[in-house]
Amino acid sequence: AERLKAGLAKTRNALGKNLAGLFGGGQIDEDLYEELETVLLTADMGVDATGHLLKNVRDRVSLKGLKDSQELKGALKESLNELIGPLEVPLSLGEHKPFVLMVAGVNGAGKTTSIGKLAKYFQSQGKSVLLAAGDTFRAAAREQLVVWGERNGVQVIAQDSGDAAAVAFDAVNAARARGVDVVIVDTAGRLPTQLHLMEEIKKVKRVVQKADPTGPHEVMLVLDANTGQNAVNQVKAFDDALGLTGLVLTKLDGTAKGGVIAAIAKQRAVPVRFVGVGEGIDDLRPFVAADYVDALFD
Ligand code: GDP
C-alpha cells in the first residue's frame, strides 16, 4: 500500500491540491459542486464517472444532512470506493493446469515489462511459468524474451514462423506436456484501429481454444494509465474483439491521470487485476480498490 501511495503521488498531488481547497471548510453549495466536477474531470475520471460520482456525493450529503465542506471528502471517498470496488477481482488460477493467460495491448503500454513482472509474481507463488513469444513482428523482441527467460528460469517457446497463433498453440501443448502451471501468451502490440491485426489476435485466441478448449482462462489487456480517456476506448475495443477478463494498468507512478480507473469502472467494468507502479520487476501490485482510494486522498 505504501508503494502504491508513492506511485500515485502525481495523481494525488494533482487531485489533492485541487481538493484541499474544496474540503477546507465552509458551506456545501452549488459552487462547491461545480469546482468538484472540474477537479474530477481534471483527474481524468471522464464525464460519465464524474456525473455518477457527483450525484452519489449529493445523495450522501442530503441523506446524512452534511453541511460542512470538510465532510465532503468522506462522501467522495465512499462514492469512489463504491464505484471502483467491483473492479477488484483478484486473478485466481483455479484448477486449470496449465492456466493460459493471453496478453494484449498497444505498443509501449508496458506489455513486455508487465509479462516479466507477472512471470516473477507467479514464480513467487511457487508456480512454474512458460512464455509464448507471440510478438512475431519484432524478432528482437523475441530474442530478448528468450534471453530474459533463460536468466529467470522461465521457459520460452519461440518460432521463426511469424505465426503468432502457431506459437501459442505450441506453447499450450508444451506446457501441458511439461506439467507447467501458467502459460503467458505474449502478442504483438497493436491498435484497435488496425483491423487486420485485430483479426490476427482473435485468431490467436481461437487457436489457443483449439489447444485447450477450456482456455484461454484470462484475456488481459495492458493499459498505460497516461493515455487517460483513450484507455477507456482501448478497453472497449479489445473487449469487443476478444472478450477481456482482466486489465493491467501500468505507469500509475508517473501520471496525474490515475482517475481513469473510475472512467473504466463506469464505462466498461473489466476487472483491474494488477497495477504497475514502476519499471522494476517487483513493481506490480494486485489491485485493491480501498488502497487505491486511500492513496489518492491521504
Ligand atoms: P510494450 O511495448 O507494451 O511491450 O512496452 P514495454 O514493456 O517495453 O514498456 C515501455 C516502457 O514503459 C518501458 O520503458 C518500461 O520500463 C515502461 N514501463 C512499463 N510499465 C511501467 C510502470 O508500471 N511504471 C513505469 N514508470 N514505467 C513502466
Summarize the structure.
The chain is an alpha/beta fold and 298 residues long.
Map the helices and strands.
Blueprint: H1 2-7, H2 9-22, H3 30-42, H4 46-64, H5 72-84, E1 99-105, H6 111-124, E2 129-132, H7 139-152, E3 155-157, H8 164-178, E4 182-185, H9 195-211, E5 218-224, H10 229-242, E6 246-250, H11 260-267, E7 272-276, E8 284-286, H12 289-297
Parallel strand pairs: 1-4, 1-5, 2-3, 2-4, 5-6, 6-7
Antiparallel strand pairs: 7-8
Bound molecules: guanosine-5'-diphosphate.
Subunit structure: Part of the signal recognition particle protein translocation system, which is composed of SRP and FtsY. SRP is a ribonucleoprotein composed of Ffh and a 4.5S RNA molecule.
Catalytic activity: GTP + H2O = GDP + phosphate + H(+)
Membrane topology: Peripheral membrane protein
Task: Describe the protein.
- By secondary structure, this protein is α/β, with parallel strands linked by helices.
- The chain is 52% helix and 13% strand.
- The chain contains twelve helices and eight strands.
- An eight-stranded mixed β-sheet has the order 3-2-4-1-5-6-7-8, with helices on both faces.
- Helix 7 (139-152) links the parallel strand 2 (129-132) and strand 3.
- It is elongated.
- Residues 271-284 form the SRP54-type proteins GTP-binding domain.
- It is a peripheral membrane protein.
- It catalyses: GTP + H2O = GDP + phosphate + H(+).
- Part of the signal recognition particle protein translocation system, which is composed of SRP and FtsY. SRP is a ribonucleoprotein composed of Ffh and a 4.5S RNA molecule.
- It is found in: Cell membrane; Cytoplasm.
